[in-house]
Amino acid sequence: MSPRIAVFDLDETLICGDSSQLWTQYLWEKKIITDPCFIEADQQMMTDYHAGKLDMHKYLAFSLQALHQVPHEQVDIWLSDFVDNKIRPLLYPAARRQLEIYRQQHVPIIIISATVAFVVKKIAAAFGVQTALGIDMIMENGCYTGKIQGTPTFRDGKVIRLQQWLTEQNLLPQHILFYTDSANDLPMCLFANEIFTVNPDKHLQTIASTHGWKQLNWTLEQSLFEIEGNRSDKVQN
């Protein structure tokens, strides 16, 4: 049994950006995809996501068409370059420090995101986080398809997948801390014991104020002095 676990959303929480959208832009810049429809689909995805009406199955079925004939080994090579050059610079300094605090306290850390798992896990590994849950995709002939495998880590699905993982690991934490920016994660907020909203959207900000959840303002320019000075507001021992 672990008395506490720390669960983090990824996009706009640990990093200043959306990894799914950034991944599509990376593939576009590298001319791996050349059809502007994929960029337009990502822009529509963000609009629908923030409006709380995203059809995840439909979106992934379309967006992963570009990789359907690409061996997963090649995708992994692109991902390494993508994470090093596009994602690492977007990790909030306060997020880096908070992850380190939990590591020093031997608190298990989990990243759970509505981005596809092969992207989430690559990013988590770069951040030194061993456990990451994302949307698992069915593979055919060594290539990723647009078909979702199991329960997607989206809205209520995040709670379901986290519960499944805890059962598999034989963990029964007494206290779950959860960090997120989005009202789409309300099911996880209600499931967790302690919530930290990071630059929350307006809906989540309103709910956080009602419930008395801690609201954090993380920026890429935040100094180490500011992080240390606010440390007591970000974690309870």
From TrEMBL:
It comes from the Bacteria. Keywords: Hydrolase, Magnesium, Metal-binding. GO terms for molecular function: hydrolase activity; metal ion binding. It holds the Pfam family HAD. SUPFAM superfamilies: HAD-like. CDD domains: HAD_PGPPase. PANTHER family: PHOSPHATASE RV3661-RELATED, PHOSPHOSERINE PHOSPHATASE. This is Hydrolase, haloacid dehalogenase-like family. It comes from Xenorhabdus szentirmaii DSM 16338. The lineage of its organism: Bacteria, Pseudomonadati, Pseudomonadota, Gammaproteobacteria, Enterobacterales.
